[in-house]
């Protein structure tokens, strides 16, 4: 997907809109396993005064950090400052970071250090290509997935069958700060990146028809396999978006909403459309045959109708002679 510059004031960033109970910032006070902690971590996660390292640049590591306070905001925007770096050369590093807004937290598993068949939203910053046939996109690749617990993440296909959209972004071994923004407002999910040291957001994903409940947890996780990287979280800042809702929307029990996406086509159709963009389904195989058959039948019907009309006109003209 080609990046499109967007206005830098997508979030005003005012301090009064920052929700500190859902934000993770230096010097990372409130991180730990005590009852008063607002963030808890697991696995290889290391908390320092400058960064939170989810995994070191070592093989077969998993780590995560999770907000212990459920979020009841209907409209929000999360800004994540992160850093992915390591000694591995091009294509010899992995696996990546995931940002979560899910029903459950601290459930380790195979999806970038978190459980599969999750319930909620995931944003994947995938740095390693598993699908050698998917050469139409470059890595690192950022994608989004909404799940109600029934769909598994297919590592072998880099999650292509379940992604809602995505974009390539050079996020690894950058000398400057790198940022990700996740915005959810009035059923619209927008993902943006700022990774080129230009202090401007570039749109990566923009999808309407997304339904997410309140009362879920924010978190971040990362994993390494045979290849590795340092996966660091510098900050996660959640902003409340001041949005008006209808009386009907306000009266809904938002905690009972099931995560879903109302799309023109199923995410599984992305196998035919490898870009991950929701355009018309690719016309291949039987689809082309059906289209040609329908066109041929249409031509035949038009020809028959035309012949009948022409014959009737000829008969009518003969009556006047």
From TrEMBL:
Alphabetically ordered keywords of this record: Disulfide bond, Glycoprotein, Golgi apparatus, Lectin, Membrane, Metal-binding, Signal, Transmembrane, Transmembrane helix
Transmembrane segments: 288-310
GO biological process, one term: endoplasmic reticulum to Golgi vesicle-mediated transport
A GO CC term assigned to this protein in UniProt: COPII-coated ER to Golgi transport vesicle
Pfam families: Lectin_leg-like
Matching CDD domains: lectin_VIP36_VIPL
Keyword Glycoprotein applies: yes
Protein location: Endomembrane system; Golgi apparatus membrane
Example GO molecular function: D-mannose binding
Membrane topology of this protein: Single-pass type I membrane protein; Single-pass membrane protein
Segments forming domain L-type lectin-like: 16-241
Protein name: Lectin, mannose-binding 2
Organism of derivation: Myripristis murdjan
Gene: LMAN2
